[in-house]
User: What shape does this take?
Amino acid sequence: MNTLLLHCRAGFENEACAEITDKANMLDIIGYAKSKPNSAFVEFICQEPHQIQQFINKQPFNQLIFPRQWAAGQFVELEENDRISQLLTILKDYPPMGDLWLEMLDTNDGKSLSTFCRKFEKPLITHLKKSGKLIDDPNKPRLLLTFLTGQKVFVGYANQHNSAKWPMGIPRLKFPREAPSRSTLKIEEAWHFFIPRQEWDTRLALSMTAIDLGAAPGGWTWQLVKRHMYVTAIDNGPMQPELMETGQVKHIQADGFTYKPNKAVNWMVCDIVEKPARTAAMVQTWLAEGWCKEAIVNFKLPMKQRYLEVMKLTERMQDHFIDHGIKVNITCKQLYHDREEITCHLQRLN
Ligand SMILES: C[S@@+](CC[C@H](N)C(=O)[O-])C[C@H]1O[C@@H](n2cnc3c(N)ncnc32)[C@H](O)[C@@H]1O
Assistant: This one.
């Protein structure tokens, strides 16, 4: 068992490979990453099998940008008859598990396996519990079975507190019919990912103030209003009339890159499609000048060397904050609702 399987968005395998190799180097883990284009997964092979455990213990999962989920384990081929018995035999070498998720890859082939996985899950749980391999315990690893086909499966596990919050790293969010745009799901997912649920009442609180740069037609503003915040929406384009009727939104037709708030606000969010370096320079000013405490911004990625570009951007911002004696937490993630972009959360700590 020397393989780390990482799920990612199809088309971003090179970025996930570059990132996991970089993290392995930093932790002195010897190995290599490999992938196939558009497969939606990457494998990292550890030269020393014992290092795999070290890797998933030491690397905080939520600091990875491109991988959506990970599991340590091995690929196995199952014969069509009695897959459960074969899995039980393989699992003899695994520790007892505290939970089970059946996962597929985020590809069309993967999606076609969802009915099979749903049907297979219940009898599998029954047998795993009977054999003592599965006990409800949040402190034991989660068994993660990733089905590539009905026969080929990655039998892996991960710490429940250091892996994806949702199966395959995909949150189940329902598009609210009243929201002005589908983009609304991006900011909702960002909050679920970046802000612990128990902190929502203090960090996404009633009567807080927010500025939404590039707000029209208002999908992000809609989420802020739903949290009972007062929002200044900056965009030359029109906002959804129903949102304006809430009385919680002030619409200003201005350039988001030159706009300065009269008073500091709790949140700045920005969904303007721009060169990432320009967006980074702008958000860095907002945080350094104290115009906002927290920010969520989208970075449109270039076509090549996307991991390297993200690293450069975040290092440049961090250097700027250090030069100004400011502490800022920066976390980036390619969210499920992101396409060619990533989402970045910044929180000023002093
Ligand atoms: C992707 S859309 C934003 C969608 C919005 N977040 C939502 O959920 O409905 C980008 C918006 O940025 C606006 N925009 C582009 N350049 C801008 C600028 N320099 N200043 C302000 N808004 C800008 C566009 O008019 C467009 O409405």
Notes: The chain is about 30% helix and 25% strand.
